């Protein structure tokens, strides 16, 4: 017979060894009959549980991978942002330089063409002088100079207005 520690249970009529045994074993649930009768079913259930756990683990791993990829994408985007800003600033600077250079180049072209016209006119004036009086030639030259000056001023004004309008539209759109 098993020896039982009865020190916790002082011996009296209610605490006989049989009574104590009942109290100790009353909380223990007996195994279900199905599990005892069908060990194959028990194995199948365990396998199913394992498969479910594996699936859950795989899903969790996939979620973690997705999160890592998202983080990497975010980091790459953050790295690219300052580069894009630098590129935009460089483009703006280039555009501004082009705008500054354009009127200068146009003015140079106009001055060249005016020089050529003046040289051509001087050559014509020299030939024309032999046939006509000097007073008539002076009038022509003064009229031509006035026309050239007024044309040149109008062109310069329109160019500066165009540049100013372009800058304003850029500022509005940016």
TrEMBL record:
Polar residues biased stretches: 160-174
Region (Disordered): 23-174
Origin: domain of life: Eukaryota
Compositional bias per record (Low complexity), positions renumbered to this chain: 40-57, 69-121, 142-159
Protein name (database record): Uncharacterized protein
Organism from which the protein derives: Anopheles epiroticus
């Amino acid at each position: 017979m098993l020896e039982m520690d009865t020190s916790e249970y002082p011996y009296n009529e209610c605490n006989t060894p049989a009574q104590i045994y009942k109290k100790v074993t009353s909380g223990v649930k007996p195994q279900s009959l199905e599990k005892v009768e069908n060990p194959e079913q028990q194995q199948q259930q365990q396998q199913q549980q394992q498969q479910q756990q594996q699936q859950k683990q795989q899903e969790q791993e996939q979620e973690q991978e997705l999160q890592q990829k998202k983080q990497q994408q975010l980091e790459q985007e953050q790295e690219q942002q300052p580069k894009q800003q630098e590129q935009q600033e460089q483009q703006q600077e280039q555009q501004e330089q082009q705008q500054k250079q354009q009127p200068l180049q146009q003015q140079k072209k106009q001055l060249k063409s005016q020089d050529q016209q003046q040289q051509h006119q001087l050559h014509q004036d020299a030939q024309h002088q032999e046939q006509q009086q000097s007073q008539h030639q002076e009038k022509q030259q003064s009229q031509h100079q006035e026309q050239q000056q007024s044309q040149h001023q109008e062109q310069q004004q329109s160019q500066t207005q165009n540049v100013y309008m372009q800058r304003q539209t850029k500022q509005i759109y940016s």
